[in-house]
Amino acid sequence: MLRPTPESPFAHVQGLEWVRESFRHCSLIQIGMRSQATMTVHCPVGITTSTVSERLGLTPSRARDRGESSRRGPVIHHLKFTSWSISSSETPQEDVTLDEELRKLLEVVEPVGEHLKELHTRGCEITWSCFLEATPIEGMNVIERETLQRLVALPGDLLLDVYGVDDSDDDSPPNPDSASSKPRKDPPLGDH
Predict the structure, then answer these.
(1) Does the pLDDT at position 48 exceed 70?
(2) Burial of 153 (0-12, 13-18, 19+ CB in 10 A)
(3) What's the rounded Cα separation, in Å, for the pair 149 and 141?
């Protein structure tokens, strides 16, 4: 077992394995958090959402073709690109770690990884979005090394969308200078 040196910042613990086990234990007892993982394929002109669905053999959680109307508040605009998304769950999951959500999504996407790589070589941009909302005390979340290695084997960038939840019980108005934010109902979707 690897032991920390006396001058290392972890000198006060019994070894790095203890730290890893502590993190794993913490991730199993997360309370007051929500998480969800989504893979989005942003397509260049000429590749439609139906092309992505056919190539991957998967049904998207959300699919929007270039030129479709989209509403953000009172403003209607036309999408500038095609986006095809698949999520680990329909909505963010209560008390489920980000690692669990990523593993659930990878179970679906890994079998079609070669087709995903082909879409990437044809100009599609892939993003893996991880939504996490947690109370300040439960904000620690671990993504296991094995999960990261599985993710790195596939094309795309990892995007972390992390929010704090104000869990105070008082009814006072929110402090605009506070570092935490109020909870959101759902993560933003890939309409950018």
Answers:
(1) yes
(2) exposed
(3) 17
Q: What is the mean pLDDT of residues 54-76?
A: 84
The label of the residue with tokens 């070589």 reads 121
What angle, 0 to 180 degrees and rounded to 10, lies between the N-to-C axes of helices 49-56 and 113-121? 140
First vs last C-alpha separation in the chain: 47
Which residue(s) pair with 72 in the sheet? 75
Which tokens is 141 given?
């979340």
Structural contact between residues 15 and 3, judged by C-beta atoms closer than 8 angstroms = yes
What is the tens place of the pLDDT at every residue in 2-42?
Answer: 344 445 444 444 444 544 455 444 444 445 788 999 999 99
* pTM for this model (two decimals): 0.68
- Three-state secondary-structure class, residue 12: coil
Cα distance between residue 13 and residue 44, in whole Å: 51
Q: From 105, 106, 120, select the one nearest 47 (Cα to Cα).
A: 120
Determine the Cα–Cα distance for residues 79 and 74; give it in Å rounded to an integer: 16
In sequence order, the 6+-apart residues with CB closer than 8 A to the CB of 16 are: 1, 2, 3, 4, 10
Q: Cβ neighbours of residue 21 under 8 Å, at least 6 residues apart?
A: none
